[in-house]
Amino acid sequence: MDGNGRWAVNRGLPRIEGHRRGVNVVKDIVTECRRIGVKYLTLYAFSSENWSRPEKEVSFLMRLLKLFLLKEKRTMMKNNIRFNVIGRYKELPAFVQKELTKAMKETSGNKGMVLSLALNYGGRIEIVDAVRRIVSDVLSSGSGMAPENAAQAVNEDLLSDYMYTGGMPDPDLLIRTSGELRVSNFLLWQIAYSEFYVTQTLWPDFTAASLHEALEAYRKRDRRFGGI
Ligand code: IPE
Ligand code: MG
Q1: Structural domains in the chain, sorted by start
Q2: pLDDT at residue 144 above 90?
Q3: What backbone torsions phi and psi does residue 45 show, to the nearest 5 degrees?
Q4: Cα 149 to the center of its chain, rounded Å
Q5: Sequence-separated contacts (24+) of 166-173 with Cβ below 8 Å
Q6: Do residues 29 and 211 lie in contact, with contact meaning Cβ atoms separated by under 8 Å?
Q7: What burial class does residue 42 get, using C-beta atoms within 10 Å of its C-beta: 0-12 exposed, 13-18 middle, 19+ buried?
Q8: For this structure, is 205 an active site residue?
Q9: Ligand in closest contact with the CA of 9
Q10: Atom 12, ligand 1: which residue's CA is nearest?
Q11: H or E element in which residue 44 lies
């Protein structure tokens, strides 16, 4: 969800106004995805690199996140949406963690769609965390497995299971707003065969119609997964 800052600056507004407007777009896009039957929607909301922003902007984003959860939990319940977080969210301020945990718990029985927010998320760190957990599980399992056998047991499926997204399918489509042609450390493992769609539209200007344009482009792609 890129371009909030530029959207605001283009209008002579403080950057935080772009974030405020961006949250309304989140609501619209989540609702539209649910309506058309998208099963998994993952939004990159705060990267592990975003801490380097001015303290005032970071704390505004944290408060905005809390407000979003308080306000939209009802919409999630009404629309049968399960709320999920990926990333090292235990490093977020306690007041945010509390709302995240509550939202995940309260929506845990919902089956219509999984809405994941990537928070304090970094794709490389995710891989590091996965490998750490694998090593720790092997060492604490007491299986007495020979090192060679343990090493052989590591495969792509196992790594996928140990990612924050364990149990979720890889994304079919990745949409990047604001025209930037880079991945910015998002779902590095999972996007190996995802289709990319880049739009110049800044996130605060992104609408349900923009989403349908992206889906239309996706529909025309010929996905070969390395075949012919
Ligand atoms: C939103 O857009 C992304 C968040 C971290 C919330 P930006 O804040 O990166 O906007 P630009 O790139 O400065 O325009
Ligand atoms: Mg940006």
Answers
A1: 4-122+173-219 (3.40.1180.10)
A2: no
A3: -100, -35
A4: 34
A5: 168/40, 168/114, 168/116, 169/39, 169/40, 170/194, 171/40, 171/42, 172/218, 173/197, 173/214, 173/215, 173/218
A6: yes
A7: buried
A8: no
A9: 1
A10: 3
A11: strand 40-47
In the annotation, is 2 catalytic? yes
Say what the pLDDT of residue 143 is.
79
Residue nearest ligand 1's atom 5 by CA? 46
User: How far does the centroid of ligand 2 lie from the alpha carbon of residue 3, in Å?
Assistant: 5
* Span 20-35, average pLDDT: 98
Query: H or E stretch including 68?
Result: helix 55-78
Label residue 62 by pLDDT band (50, 70, 90).
very high
Specify the DSSP element, H or E, that contains 86.
Answer: strand 81-86
To the nearest whole number, what is the mean pLDDT of the chain? 97
Contact 43, 117 (CB under 8 A): yes
Distance CA 179, CA 26 (A): 18
Tell me which amino acid residue 130 is.
A
pTM over 0.85: yes
Residue 79 · residue 113 · CB < 8 Å: yes
Q: Report which of 13, 53, 43 is spatially closest to residue 203, judged by C-alpha positions.
A: 43
Residue 69 identity: L
Amino acid sitting at position 187:
L
Ligand 2 center from residue 182 Cα (angstroms): 11
